[in-house]
Amino acid sequence: PVVRGSPGAPRGPHGPIHPTHTIRVRPLTCSEVRRGDRRVVHSLGGGTVHVSTTSVLGPDATFGFSAVFDAGDSQEAVFEGSGMRQLVELAMDGFSCTVFAFGQTGSGKTYTLMGPLGQGETHAASPALLGLMQRSFACLLEQSRSRGSDLALSASYLEIYNEQIRDLLSPGPPCTLPLRWSKTRGFYVENQLSVDFESLEAIASLLLQGSQRRRTSAHALNRHSSRSHALLTIHIRIHCTTPAGHGGSPPGPWPTGYSRGCGQGAVCHCWDPSESPPRAPRYPGRRCCKVWRKKSMPCSWKTSPCASSWVCPGCP
Ligand SMILES: Nc1ncnc2c1ncn2[C@@H]1O[C@H](COP(=O)(O)OP(=O)(O)OP(=O)(O)O)[C@@H](O)[C@H]1O
C-alpha cells in the first residue's frame, strides 16, 4: 500500500517530502519458464498491481503504490519514474536521502540497484542495464556540474551479515566493525572507511570493488543470491566561497565544517563539524548562512546575539 507522509514530514523546497513506495515486477527467469511457472502479479496501470492467487492462498488482491514497473520496463524507466532524480536533487540541497530495496530472495533487488554487476559480473555492464546506483552517481555529478557547486564527495560501503558489520571498502582480510551510539552522532559504525571520489569512473570502481567482496551464494531461487544487507552511503559536502566585495564570514572563530560565508546569490550549506558523517544541513539552500547553536560551539558564538541567525551583509 502507498504510505503517506506524516504531518511532521520534513519539508523540501516544494513542500513536505513523503516517502514513495514503488514496486517492480520482474520477468520470469529462464528456469522459471522451463519449469512452467506463470506470472501472478500484473500491473493494472495507475499505480496498482493485481495479484492472482490460487484458492488455497485466499482471494486475489490489488495493491496501490506510488509507481508500478512491469516486467518489460527498462532500468532507465525505473530510474526516471521512481523519483530517483528528485532524490539526488534533494541530496544536493542538503537532505539525507535513502533508497531501500525490499523483497524476497530472487525478486530483483540487486538487479534493480546495480544491474548485472550484482550478479557477479566483473566487467562493466551495457549502459542500458546499469542500475539505480550507477544512474544516481551520474546524475549527482551532472547536477554538481550544472549547479557549478564545489562538491567534496566520499563513499562508504558496508554489509551486515549474521549481525556483524563488515567494511566492503577497506583492503585486507574482512574484519568486523563495532556499532556505536553517541549523543552527538546517534548510531554510527566505528572505524568505517570513507573514500573520496571525484569522477564517475572512481565511484563505479568503488562499487565494483565493494560488491565483489559481498557474501553471495547459490540457492534454488537465485544463482547469485546476496547473503547480506548492504549499505552504500555517499557523503556530499558543498562548499561556498565569498566572492570579493560580497558577503563575508561572520566573526570567528569559525569551526571547520561550517561554510565560511556566502556571497550575493550564493547558496550556503552549514553543517555541524561534530557529526561525522554530517547529517543534513539544517538550513540548506538559503541565500544566507544560518548556524544553530550548540554547546560545542565556541563561546563567542553562544554569546553573540546573531549566533543563531546570521545574515550576510550582501544578501537580501
Ligand atoms: N528486471 C529484470 N529483468 C531481467 N532479469 C531480472 C530482473 N530482475 C531480476 N532479474 C534476474 O532475476 C534473478 C534474481 O535477481 P536478483 O539477484 O537481483 O534478486 P535479489 O532480490 O537481489 O535476490 P537476493 O535477495 O537473493 O540477493 C537474477 O538472475 C536477475 O538477473
Gyration radius, rounded: 23 Å
Low-confidence stretches: 1-8, 240-316
CATH class category of the largest domain: Alpha Beta
Annotated CATH topology of the largest domain: Kinesin
Number of strands: 16
Query: What structural category arises from helix and sheet content?
Result: alpha+beta
CATH architecture label of the largest domain: 3-Layer(aba) Sandwich
Total domain modules: 3
Write out the distinct hetero groups bound to the structure: adenosine-5'-triphosphate
Q: What's the main sheet like?
A: 5 strands, antiparallel
Question: What are the key terms here?
Answer:
binds adenosine-5'-triphosphate; 3 domains; disordered C terminus; Kinesin-like_fam; 23% strand; 3-stranded antiparallel sheet; 16 strands; 5-stranded antiparallel sheet; 7 helices; alpha+beta; Kinesin; 20% helix; 316 residues; globular; disordered N terminus
Could you characterize what this model shows?
ATP binds at residues 103-110. Helix content is 20%, strand content 23%. With 316 residues, it is an alpha+beta fold. Helix 3 packs across helix 5 (132-147). The longest helix has 16 residues, at 132-147. The chain folds into three domains: 1-73, no CATH class; 74-234, Kinesin (3-Layer(aba) Sandwich), CATH 3.40.850.10; 240-316, no CATH class. The chain starts with 10 loop residues before the first strand and ends in a 13-residue tail after the last helix.
Please render the helix and strand layout as text.
Layout: E1 11-12, E2 15-16, E3 22-24, H1 30-35, E4 41-45, E5 48-51, E6 61-64, E7 67-69, H2 75-81, H3 84-92, H4 109-114, H5 132-147, E8 150-161, E9 164-167, E10 176-177, E11 179-182, E12 186-189, E13 195-197, H6 200-213, E14 216-219, E15 222-226, E16 229-239, H7 299-303
Parallel strand pairs: 3-7
Antiparallel strand pairs: 1-2, 4-5, 5-6, 8-9, 8-13, 8-16, 9-10, 11-12, 14-15
Helix pairs in contact: 3-5
This protein binds adenosine-5'-triphosphate.
